[in-house]
């Protein structure tokens, strides 16, 4: 049995060890989960570096999301069941086996690819909340986003299609645009000259009800120009480190509202019933193929350095996961 443990905040490479015999004592209200697959998410690197909104306390068990099977539990409802581990940083999924509080487990169907299900915890939930928590969207409505080819962006496109919404997605590379078009995205634009003008032209008179910002650069300002009077812009990430900038005319004359989403806030306030319902629905959509994401590669825990290098490659194709 092995588990990746972070011993100090800062340099994940220097501060991580593969612990070969972690303590797997199962207490009351806990379960032992054998991990089937655990995704590598950008948040894992931010947590280790100390640049995230949640401060990890070391020694810290790495790995936010994953799925597995309960191999030991006092609860007959859990024993032997396939479960999703709630990504609230109270346990680490980059392990062969891990002890998890029962309240952090959601029972999911036996059907479905473990790799696809291992990615449900963070990004599909983010896409779901972005599309449901801010604006009452109806079939036929348009929404816009940047970071369109990110995992979050692709789940936004998939969920929007499922809900009958139409999407305008901005990306920074032509290859990324081609990939999204091949996946059936409605409108895809590549960042560059007169982005706002090109977005408006492609919308052909329609307006966006909602614009989503993951980039934190001028692309959100361009998308905001196409948002309807009094509409909403939601910031959920800034890969550039810049704050979202919405033009003065859009925020004052057209009264757009800028809001934020962090799933950690939702996870810490949602009831267990709400968690179960939301993740069960998302897992069902993934198991049936309504939502899916390309897998770039899988690695064993022992190859964790190779896995991390691959996960951090710019322009990488597909998600990187551990398959212990
Ligand atoms: N608020 C929340 O609760 C929440 C939840 C989930 C995720 N997030 C955040 O959402 C972001 C996306 O996560 P993910 O898992 O979807 O990421 P991902 O699949 O790894 O995709 C990363 C994306 O970032 C783009 N990118 C990287 N550097 C960039 C730059 N300097 N300028 C423009 N684009 C850049 C990449 O474009 P290329 O393909 O061209 O390289 C790619 O589209 C992350 O910042 C993550 O922390 C936030």
From TrEMBL:
Ranges where the Enoyl reductase (ER) domain occurs: 10-322
Coiled-coil parts of chain: none
EC numbers: 1.3.1.104
Catalytic reaction equation(s): a 2,3-saturated acyl-[ACP] + NADP(+) = a (2E)-enoyl-[ACP] + NADPH + H(+)
Keywords recorded for this protein, A-Z: Fatty acid biosynthesis, Fatty acid metabolism, Lipid biosynthesis, Lipid metabolism, NADP, Oxidoreductase, Transit peptide
SUPFAM superfamilies hit by this protein: GroES-like, NAD(P)-binding Rossmann-fold domains
Enzyme kind, highest EC tier: oxidoreductase
Similarity field: Belongs to the zinc-containing alcohol dehydrogenase family. Quinone oxidoreductase subfamily.
Protein name: enoyl-[acyl-carrier-protein] reductase
Naturally occurring in which organism (per UniProt): Kribbella lupini
Lineage summary: Bacteria, Bacillati, Actinomycetota, Actinomycetes, Propionibacteriales
């Amino acid at each position: 049995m092995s588990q990746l443990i972070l011993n100090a905040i800062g340099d994940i490479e220097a501060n991580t060890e593969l612990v070969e015999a972690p303590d797997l004592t199962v207490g009351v209200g806990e379960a032992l989960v054998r991990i089937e697959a655990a995704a590598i998410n950008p948040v894992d690197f931010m947590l280790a570096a100390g640049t995230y909104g949640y401060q990890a306390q070391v020694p810290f068990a790495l790995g936010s999301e994953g799925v597995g099977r309960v191999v030991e539990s006092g609860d007959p409802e859990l024993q032997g069941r396939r479960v999703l581990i709630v990504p609230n940083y109270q346990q680490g999924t980059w392990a062969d086996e891990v002890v998890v509080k029962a309240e952090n487990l959601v029972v999911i169907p036996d059907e479905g690819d473990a790799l696809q299900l291992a990615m449900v915890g963070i990004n599909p939930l983010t896409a779901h909340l972005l599309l449901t928590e801010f604006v009452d969207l109806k079939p036929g409505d348009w929404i816009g986003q940047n970071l369109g080819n990110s995992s979050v962006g692709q789940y936004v496109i998939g969920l929007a299609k499922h809900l009958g919404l139409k999407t305008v997605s901005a990306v920074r590379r032509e290859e990324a645009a081609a990939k999204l078009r091949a996946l059936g995205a409605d409108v895809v634009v590549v960042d560059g000259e007169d982005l706002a003008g090109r977005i408006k032209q492609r919308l052909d008179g329609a307006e966006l009800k909602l614009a989503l910002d993951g980039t934190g650069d001028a692309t959100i300002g361009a998308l905001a120009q196409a948002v309807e009077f009094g509409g909403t812009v939601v910031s959920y990430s800034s890969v550039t480190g810049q704050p979202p900038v919405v033009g003065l005319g859009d925020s004052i004359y057209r009264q757009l509202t800028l809001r934020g989403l962090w799933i950690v806030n939702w996870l810490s306030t949602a009831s267990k019933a709400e968690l179960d319902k939301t993740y069960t629905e998302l897992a069902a959509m993934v198991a049936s193929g309504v939502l899916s994401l390309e897998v770039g590669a899988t690695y064993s825990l022992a190859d964790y350095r190779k896995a991390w290098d691959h996960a951090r490659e710019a322009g990488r194709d597909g998600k990187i996961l551990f398959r212990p």
